[in-house]
């Protein structure tokens, strides 16, 4: 098989190719920055949501633990109000 001889490409076509390549790089950079800002905002919102959920769970667990201690004190025959006043 004979190899094909490379043809000379017009300078206009070369300039167009390089221009489009550079335009694509610029577009990609701008698009990356846009997406990055959007994702940072979404990530911060998710972190805030998860943090608030954890705080709510801890508060709920504390309320349940306090109620459990009151129920245990009542079952043991101790007045829970008097025992809190001693501390």
3D architecture notes:
The chain is mostly helical and about 90 residues long. The protein has a domain at about 30-75. The protein is about 85% helix and about 0% strand. The protein has two helices and no strands. It has helices at about 10-75, 80-85. The N and C termini lie far apart (about 100 Å).
Major sheet summary line: none
Instruction: Give the amount of beta strand, in percent.
Output: under 5%
Distance between the termini: 98 Å
So what's the overall shape? rod-shaped
Rounded average pLDDT: 91
Q: Percent range for helical residues?
A: over 70%
Low-pLDDT stretches are none
- How many β-strand stretches? 0
Whole-number radius of gyration? 35 Å
Structural class call reads mainly alpha
DSSP summary: helix tally: 2
InterPro entries: ATP_synth_F0_esu_mt
GO biological process, one term: proton motive force-driven ATP synthesis
Family: Belongs to the ATPase e subunit family.
Organism: Rotaria magnacalcarata
Question: Summary?
Answer:
With 87 residues, this protein is mostly helical.
Write the layout of secondary structure elements.
Layout: H1 11-76, H2 80-86
Question: Which key terms come to mind for this protein?
Answer:
mainly alpha, 84% helix, rod-shaped, proton transmembrane transporter activity
